[in-house]
Amino acid sequence: MEPQIRYCTTNDGVNIAWAEMGQGPALLICGAAPFTHVREWVAIFESFYGPLARSCRLIWFDARGTGMSERDVTDVSAATLRIDAEAVVNAAKLDRFAVINLGSLLSLATALQLATERQEQVTHLVLWSPYQRMNDVADTQYAKVGRALAEADWPSYVAATFLVLFNNDPSTNPEYVRMATAAAAWAEPAVGLLYRRLEETMDVGDLLPRVCQPTLVMTAEERSFPPVRACQRIAAKIPGAEFRQYSHARGEHTADQTLAFLGLSAAITSAPTAPAGMAVVLFADIVDSTGLTERLGDAAFRERARGLDERLRAIIGERGGTAIDGKLLGDGVLAVFTAASGAIDAALACAVSGAEFGLQLHLGIHAGDVIREANNVFGGAVNIAARICGLSAPGEVLVSDIVRGLARTSAGVVFEDRGEQELKGVGEPVRLYAVRKGSA
After folding, report:
1. Mean pLDDT, range 351-357, rounded to an integer
2. Which of 3, 62, 306, 311 is the most exposed place for a label (fewest CB within 10 A)?
């Protein structure tokens, strides 16, 4: 099961990456900023996300400045945590949903703000290893891995933090090394420090007695952080909250506890694959990526390409499209849309962003039937869109005659006829049009 990664924009103009997977009752996960990444987190903790997604519509997101969300931020606060979460709730069109936090004080603050401000929408609250403020864990090793180390050496701070979170024994979690290494790159050090400073000042005590939803507070018996007493205090301050300890040694896990509390079965199978259907397919590919790598150097090129990739995905999501993460394109993006006008608008915006990053793009659009499997698409329409992309000039958007016909009166652009073109592997010539901004 592959996650669908999407983008939305907050009411203060920040692009937020969010993802969903599975079908059923909605469950929103509030992640532990700054250590969030919508794509990598689910791969690292598949044993947690997988069972939940087989029973729920699972939704999670990257807070601003982290993961695949907009990185260039200069301010974070309890208010921005709430704003980011609310943008995702609105974008996902969540009517009624449960909320779970993932252990950090900042994720707890996000979950509690949603629960207390959206009391009619949030049905249940699941709090994993929560604590009210840093003073409650002042005698733990986590608190002692302080800001001074973060300011001096961010990767070392991240590694030390995760060592504590995994009970000082990486062998208890085989993904420790991978996550500790990857997480250092999920936020710029300056942004990571902003979140650390915010955590040091955070106190959620005033929110706890205002929670009215059924609430489960749980922690593992084997954990040394946070102390059990800190979790028990949280449960005592939430009216009617249930406190539960579970044991990894006895084969008990967070996902199982969550599903049991929500009254769901972990045995529910995933929904069937969506059937074939019509889609508008957009391909975007970096021009001469090999040559650029030689000129810029591998590290510089990959950094620039990563930034462009995040921007393209934001553009696609903002215009109603879905980036296809199951399709490995190397230095390009594949997306599907339900409207030709949206695909054209996205392609033109992608071309502008490519130029801004100094990485011009080939862009091609076609429409036709596709076969959908998890988060992937196949079929002749996909192949034709790829061929059209390959024929476009740097920064140019080429579309097929079918796309022109669909968008001729709605896209607000000019179509320049490029004549019939032979496409490799396609039996008949395809008439292509270059797209220009203007009045149709």
Report:
1. 91
2. 306
